[in-house]
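Homework help board

Subject: predicted structure for assignment chain

Our instructor gave us this sequence and asked us to write out the predicted structure in token form, then describe one feature. I got the tokens but I'm not sure how to describe them. Can anyone check?
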Amino acid sequence: MIKFCQIFVIINLVLISQVSSHTYCKVQETTMIKYESTSIDNVNGIHQDINSNEAVDMLWVRGTIFYYIPARIGHYLTNLQAIWIHQCGLKVLKYENLKQFPKLRYIYAGQNQLEVLASDVFKGNPNIEWIDLQKNKLKFIDGEIFTVFPLMQNLNLKKNYCVDQHHYGKVGHIHFEQIKHEIDMNCHLPNEIFCAMQEMSHQGENYYTCSGKGTAINNKNVTISRILHNQNLTIISNPLNETQGLHIRYQNFSNFPRNLHEFLPNLIAIQIIGSQLKELNSKDIKNYKDLKSLWLPLNHIENLNNSVFAYNEKLEKLSFYGNRLKFIKSQILMPLKFLKFVSFEKNICIDIAAENSEKFDIIRSEIIEKCN
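My token output:
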């Protein structure tokens, strides 16, 4: 049994000026919630006057270890409308945590350790008016979260890692386009890519490219759930299908997603620059048979095998400048009949670039001598 509350009192609520008073449950400072699986077995405390648990409409937690919102609080405090969790190391805020409070209107969880907000986090709280998550560590947010609350008056995401916005106003008069735009640009979940669509050129031909923002692909065998885009180029009827370039620059893109081709099927140019890419295999690019330019400088690639370009014979430009190449198979360039430029400069086993077929032979010799 966890004795959850210290005392029930009537207070003037400073955070939300529209509400004059709350009956609140102040969690004991000795209470520690360290595990996500924690479930509350009882709530007790000293009630003021004739109040009961049913009168409690605010949960107050401050200055204690409270990493997770435990299950079954809502079973005992059935009328919670406000939650205040301040400087408690709160790590997670999920739909499963909040759905037990269907009457929730206000949540303050400032100065904690929150990093992720998924799309359904407030799905069970349709009456939300006030969200304050300032000074957390938010990195990944689904921008659609904040478009479904007709009663919203305040949204404070100031001083987070990927967003720094605060919007406040009367019900029905808040426009969240600005904060949603910043979230779309900078706060993607790990299996999402946001495309800032741009017009580029390749050998005199114009094409549309997806300039990835807020991208985080950290593991092998990741599948993308969606690719968002800014739709600035209104002349494109189907932006992703008509996109021919992918440009990832100084993002976290350590591995190719398995299903990238399902979202961007017609790429002819791929640039992944300074994004910690660890490896390149034939399966990563085999669906891009019309690929002409592959630019991967300043990454962490160490090995290249003979089959890596087996399906990309139309490649014309290729760069592995500034990677960590130690081993390269000698026949790696064999399938590339249209190759015009290749760079292996500033690698561990090789440091050379070439722009003609004679120098390509020199590169092959150096690979055999130094990188096998």
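Reply (TA_rk): Your tokens look well-formed. For the description, you could write something like this. Residues 5-186 form a domain with the Leucine-rich repeat, LRR (right-handed beta-alpha superhelix) fold (CATH 3.80.10.10). That's the kind of observation they're looking for.
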